[in-house]
Specification:
Elements (H helix, E strand, L loop, with lengths): L1 E5 L2 E5 L7 H8 L18 E4 L2 E4 L12 E3 L7 H12 L9 H14 L5 H7 L10 H15 L1
Parallel strand pairs: 1-5
Antiparallel strand pairs: 1-2, 3-4, 3-5
Helix pairs in contact: 2-3, 2-5
Bound molecules: FE2/S2 (inorganic) cluster (2 copies).
One FE2/S2 (inorganic) cluster (FES) binds next to loops.
């Protein structure tokens, strides 16, 4: 048994410790907001927070995060998360939406450590998140907008 603490709730799961966290979230906990893109830590679609750090859930195993604090897009709360999700809506960032959970998780992490990121900071902080629809310009604008509301 593995204990995963996700979005404030502890779950005892009868899964292999080698199962990727992404599988555990989507297939055993039905938290399908986190997406599978590449499976090899290259696209960022599967980004979640573990103890406040943005991680690629496709390449970290359930065993590695047992007992740690995991937050998915479904469990967002707090000032930074509110500012980011509001800015995303205001600026209508989303196109197909597939990459956007991961983008939002990375944006929250970026704004948590850097309250006023420059374009360069944003490009560096968001560089691991790929958007096939090319929403990068709106993502950047939304991060600036969220930063303004947090100032
Ligand atoms: S699915 Fe995990 S980084 Fe692409
Ligand atoms: S909005 Fe379609 S992949 Fe990013």
């Amino acid at each position: 048994m593995i204990t995963l603490k996700v979005n404030g709730t502890s779950h005892e799961l009868d899964i292999s410790p080698d199962m990727p966290l992404l599988w555990a979230l989507r297939d055993t906990l039905n938290l399908t907001g986190t997406k599978f893109g590449c499976g090899v830590a290259q696209c960022g679609a599967c980004t979640v927070h573990v103890d406040g750090q943005a991680v690629r859930s496709c390449t970290i195993t359930a065993g590695q995060v047992a007992g740690r604090t995991i937050t998915t897009i479904e469990g967002l709360s707090g000032k930074v998360a509110d500012a980011v999700t509001k800015a995303w809506q205001q600026l209508d960032v989303v196109q197909c939406g597939y990459c956007q959970s991961g983008q939002i998780m990375s944006a929250i992490k970026l704004l948590t450590i850097n309250k006023k990121p420059t374009n360069k900071d944003i490009d560096a902080g968001m560089g691991g998140n790929i958007c096939r629809c090319g929403t990068y310009v709106r993502i950047r604008q939304a991060i600036h907008e969220a930063a303004k509301t947090l100032a």
